[in-house]
Amino acid sequence: MPELPEVETVRRGLAPVMEGARIDRVEQRRADLRFPFPDDFAGRLAGRRVTAVGRRAKYLLVDLDDGTILVMHLGMSGRFLIETGGQSDRPGQFHHDTAIASPHDHVVIDMTTQGGGAATVTYNDPRRFGFMTLVPRSEIDTHKLFANLGVEPVGNALDAGYLAGRFAGKAAPLKAALLDQSIVAGLGNIYVCEALYRAGLSPRRAAGTLVTKAGAPRVALERLTAAVRAVIADAIAAGGSSLRDYVQADGSLGYFQHAFDVYDREGQPCATDGCRSRIRRIVQSGRSSFYCPSCQR
DNA sequence: CGAATGACCTGTGAGC
DNA sequence: TGCTCACAGGTCATTC
Question: A209, exposed or middle or buried, with CB in 10 Å at 0-12, 13-18, 19+?
């Protein structure tokens, strides 16, 4: 899936089209994605005006003028196609009405933008691990999906002291601890691998070893905190990573994948100057971890 | 309780 | 060329 930087990139693509727009019609083409849609999903959206497009962790939050929030998650393969004023971001597709529908276009949202033009946003998701639901604004922090989310890796909430508190006594490997959305919200497999490389820490190292007996962050944890923040910031600045399924909401390609040091680079030379090792792949919690056995301890 | 595993889906690329 | 297999950005339920 899109991890946090990709979701943030999608948010930035959707916001200028959706904010201030009126939803004219929603076509829901199947009863469920990962979860069933709420009852009368399309009906509840029709006629609503969008007041803001936000993000929390990997969730997109579309604020509506009736006090509800359309919550959308992209799963592993979700993406949006945006068409405005006859322009489409799907290659070869010029207008919604004449497009050859993809079998994986699951939700089509027709809108009138703030400027008065027509716009269509189509949600496409081959694997259907994504979902959409509606949550009252007043419940957004206590809702099951959000109540246990950890801090955002951007902004000031993530610091070494916080991570020390969460890692203390943990036997779980750093890879698992960083993927845990209740600790840091929004990290995924790619950026955890990259952050651990930048911090010079093995994905297998126990999280608790980065904390002193007194509960303070060790220097390595300071490095890791900075690495997480930096890799996420760099990826957002690059417009995310475009892998198999993921393209920016405007159809252009993010380019952070060219900046990967370790992810999907098994057998290739380590990028560190003077290091003669090759990147190794291991499986942890059923996911691939890529790392340099020399630089990461 | 924490940690590991399988399940949910389809598509793609590698290897034979 | 066509087949089979491993694997893919994420979570969630189940099991130890």
Answer: middle
